[in-house]
Design goal:
nine-stranded mixed beta sheet, 224 residues, binds uracil, binds 1-O-pyrophosphono-5-O-phosphono-alpha-D-ribofuranose, Rossmann fold, 13 strands, two-stranded antiparallel ribbon, binds magnesium ion
């Protein structure tokens, strides 16, 4: 479903996606359930991308009884998933259930929260590690990060990917987005489609999404 006034941003509206997100937002949801919830959400989002964004084709096949026509999803072998460390790790685990043959890339990018936000509202981003597969024209590339807050991390990640190829589909997939982050990424990368389960109200003074779900990395990795 397209988001009003934003050509390239779309909500994932599957009821189970909303249900799962609501469960992991809950402050009472502990680490294991939180992590499993992110995995489940990744799987549902993967199925939604297949259903809404990929084409099917008819193929002739032999059942044990006779020849018939079946329908197959096109391009499942040409999917690249980029894992933005570290909070995206369980989210990507779920996506891989939908795209088991995806080629994978990893980028470690994190906000320097001590430095604080600059005048434009962005955080400085530290990139420690980048390992991307070669991206081809026919690929569907999904850059996964459950949280899109100021958009600083995602813009930095996309800077690393952008020059390397011009794939058929390039999606940024998040679970929770803030309006500021969507706007920042949309303005910097107008050709990229932004997919998210929820657009929350705002950012707080520390750049956290409100109502959000807190620090996704800390909750999944139990580091607080
Ligand atoms: O849109 P932004 O303002 O850039 O914020 C979003 C980023 O912040 C979180 O990562 P964090 O830097 O906390 O690292 P982590 O995944 O290691 O916890 C989150 O997973 C995103 O990558
Ligand atoms: O709300 C936020 C913002 C950035 N990163 C998170 O994990 N949560
Ligand atoms: Mg991160």
């Amino acid at each position: 479903m397209p988001i009003e006034n934003r050509e390239n941003a779309y909500l994932i509206t599957h009821a189970l996606a909303k249900d799962t997100l609501s469960r992991i937002r809950d402050v009472e949801t502990e680490q294991v359930s939180f992590r499993k919830g992110l995995v489940k959400l990744g799987r549902i989002c993967g199925y939604e991308i297949i259903d809404g964004r990929m084409e099917t084709e008819y193929v002739e096949l032999e059942t044990p009884l006779e020849t018939t026509m079946g329908e197959r999803v096109r391009g499942l072998d040409d999917v690249v998933i980029i894992n933005v460390l570290r909070a995206a790790t369980p989210f990507v685990e779920g996506l891989l259930k939908a795209f088991p043959r995806a080629r994978q890339g990893v980028i470690s990018a994190s906000r320097d929260e001590e430095a604080g936000r600059g005048e434009d509202g962005s955080f400085p981003i530290t990139v420690d590690y980048v390992k991307l597969p070669e991206i081809h024209e026919e690929d569907t590339v999904i850059v996964a990060d459950p949280m899109l807050a100021t958009g600083s991390t995602m813009c930095t990640v996309l800077d690393h990917i952008d020059g390397s190829a011009d794939p058929e589909n390039l999606f940024v997939l998040s679970a929770v987005s803030a309006p500021d982050g969507l706007l920042r990424v949309d303005e910097s990368f107008p050709d990229i489609d932004l997919l998210t389960v929820s657009i929350d109200d705002r950012l707080d003074d520390n750049g956290f999404i409100v109502p959000g779900l807190g620090d996704a990395g800390d909750r999944a990795f139990r580091t607080t």
